[in-house]
Design a protein that fits this description.
Elements: E1 5-6, E2 12-16, E3 23-27, H1 46-65, E4 73-74
Length: about 80
């Protein structure tokens, strides 16, 4: 029984500014990330965000290509 979103279906990450609530979608294959929020100019943590996008993309590629013997789901919980 699946409880989350299959990693093979993930296309990107939705980013929401905590300061002004501006949001945008970042594709997993994003080459460059905005250094600041387009609305309020808050600093975006580009290095850890780029690392996370690349990690998700690598995991997705392993699952889709069949090189992983495991299936992965993105679990979304209400806090």
């Amino acid at each position: 029984m699946k409880h989350g979103l299959a990693v093979s279906r993930i296309k990107g990450v939705r980013m929401v500014c905590r300061k002004c609530q501006a949001e945008w979608l970042l594709p997993l294959d994003a080459v460059s990330l905005p250094p600041r929020c387009f609305n309020c100019q808050a600093t975006v943590p580009t290095e850890p965000l780029q690392d996370a996008l690349r990690g998700i993309a690598r995991l997705k590629n392993a699952v889709v290509s069949g090189s992983s013997t495991f299936e992965f789901d993105a679990v979304i919980e209400k806090t």
